[in-house]
Amino acid sequence: xxxxxxxxxxxxxxxxxxxxxxxxxxxxxxxxxxxxxxxxxxxxxxxxxxxxxxxxxxxxxxxxxxxxxxxxxxxxxxxxxxxxxxxxxxxxxxxxxxxxx
Length: 101
What we know:
By secondary structure, this protein is an alpha+beta fold. It contains three helices and five strands, in the order E-E-E-H-E-H-E-H.
């Protein structure tokens, strides 16, 4: 798509895919999304359709101040980091070295 995205561990937690429409996007849980939208409906709104029902959230960039945006980004980053930790493959056991005789 060519839009700027922000990642942790190679996985996206925020994008500027709708920047031309004045939006940034955050990947939140539906519960987190509901809190942001309830608290700041002039800044946050769900993305349309299934993505939005799963927590994808638009941020009206013009309406967001720096502190609010930083906090929202931190929330999305932390969620992605936690998901990455839960899905990380188990470390492989170390190979035993053979002693030369």
